[in-house]
Amino acid sequence: MSAFALVAEPDPILSAAQVAVVDALGLVPLVAQDGERAIWLLRRFGTPALLITSLSLPVVDGFEVLDWLRARISGRSAKVIVTSPFPELRAFAGALREHLGISAILPRNASPDTLRSLAEALLKGAELPAPLSEAARSTPVHSVRSMQEGPRDPRLDWFVRSAAEELHASVALAMVAQGEGRALISAVGMDARRWPVLGGIGRHVLGAGETLVVSDAFAHPFFQGDVSVMEGLVRGFAAAPVLDAAGRTRGMLCVIEPKARLRIGPEGLVRLAERARLIGTAIPNIEPGVGRLLRASRRRIIEAMPDSAPISSPR
Asked: What are the residue boundaries of the Response regulatory domain, all occurrences included (predicted)?
């Protein structure tokens, strides 16, 4: 087979853009939407000249794909570019760059021109400097644990139940910020009172506004130390952001396997993201102060009613 490149990316639009870059470089593109398929292609066709992979792949994680490739002697000859929308994951991958044989690390939204020039330089044998630390440029930490639980919402309960059923997940949970430091919470298969323990996962999803999937957190070099994983609540998970009409992140919808790998594939991630978008549409946001205005308005209406016609009296 001619020199080839493997593109491992679950998003079909982004994958197509990366394939176009590979074509322009004169390499034969092979495409995988999950890590299991990526490893199968590596077994079948050998070491690629170039590997472009997301760090968050369904079924088998991007870190596992890199581990598998680097276990092969010939795997060290591949040029590897990893992408992620999550600054902390990129910084963590930078710390493991030499161990995993990573050539370059890019944000997920890097332009095709940036990707092409970088890949071209690597294929010509250029040695790139180590990536700068992203600690100062990472997105602000979104505190999930500081939010207070608001009243239950039957609409949110329905979305969570249907997500668990459709995606065959043992646990599903949604958290939607509702203004004034409150959050609507709904959970299936898990005590809803434990939701603050998922703050570590929520921080990344809320910060980047992107879907995050980790098929096996027990083996994941970054997430295996998360509180939710260490307490036995999470092994595999996928979480999609809930967005408001302006595109701002105001919550997340998660599906979780506490004891087993999460086998959700690329199609399942699409359905999860679609349900998260529906939640943002169906459950309007209450901006800070609006809740107080609504309560004050209701109070004024009650106070203005004549004494002879209290609310509870029959007509």
From this structure: 4-123
